Structure prediction request, 243 residues.
Amino acid sequence: MDINEYIINRLSAILAKADQYRKEQMRMKLRLEEEKKIREDIMELYRIGREINHLCHDMRGKLETLYWLLKKGNYTEAEKNLEQIYEELKKYPALPEETGNEGLNAALINYIPKCTAKGIRFSYVILGKPDWMDSVDMGNLVYNLFSNCLDACIKTNAQAFIEIVVRSDCRNIEIRVENSIAESVLKTNPALNSQKEQKHRHGFGMKTIYRITKKYYGIYDCWEENGRFIQEISLWNEKRYKQ
Prediction:
C-alpha cells in the first residue's frame, strides 16, 4: 500500500466515524427534545387539572345564579350566563380518564384533540394501572406510536380511526394500537421508515419504540388485518422480570 492509498483510507475512516458521531449526536438531541416535550405536556396536564379544579369551584356559584335567573324568568340574562359558561368550557380539551401513568395521560390529552380536529375517531381502553413504568418512557413510547398512526390515518379517505388498548398488572404491560390504512404499509414500507419531509429530523420514531421496548425486556410486533395496521408491545417490570 503506497502512502497516497494509506492517506485516503485513513481519511475515509475518519470521515465515516465523524458521520457516525454526527448521527448519534442528532439522535441524542432529538431524543432529549422528545423527552422535554413529554415533561412539558405532563406539567401542562397538571396546570389544566388545577384550572379545572378552580373552574368546578366557580361553576357552582354560576349555576346557582343561572338557576335563580331562570326561576325569575330572566331568560335574556340567563342566556348570557350560559354563553359565558360555554365559552369557558371550550378552553379545555377533553380530558382522558386517569390512567395511573402521567406519560400516558399526557399522550392521550395531546392526541385526542388532534384526532378530533382531523376527523379521526379515537378510542382507548385502559385495563389496570401501568404505574410502575417510568412516565417519560411511557409517554415517549405512546407518542411515537400515535404519531405513526396519525400519519397513516391522514392518508385514509374516510372512516379513519385510532384505537389503543393498554392492559397492565404488576409484572407486565401490553399495548395494542390499531389504525386504519389506505394501503398496505408493510408492502410499501416494510422497514417502517419515516415518510415525512425533513427526514434528518424524523425517522427516529421506530428506533425509539425499539429502544424502550428493549429497555423493558419487551417484544414489538406488527401486522395488517382487514384494512388495519396493528402494533403490539409487551413490556416487563424489571423487578418482577428478574425474580
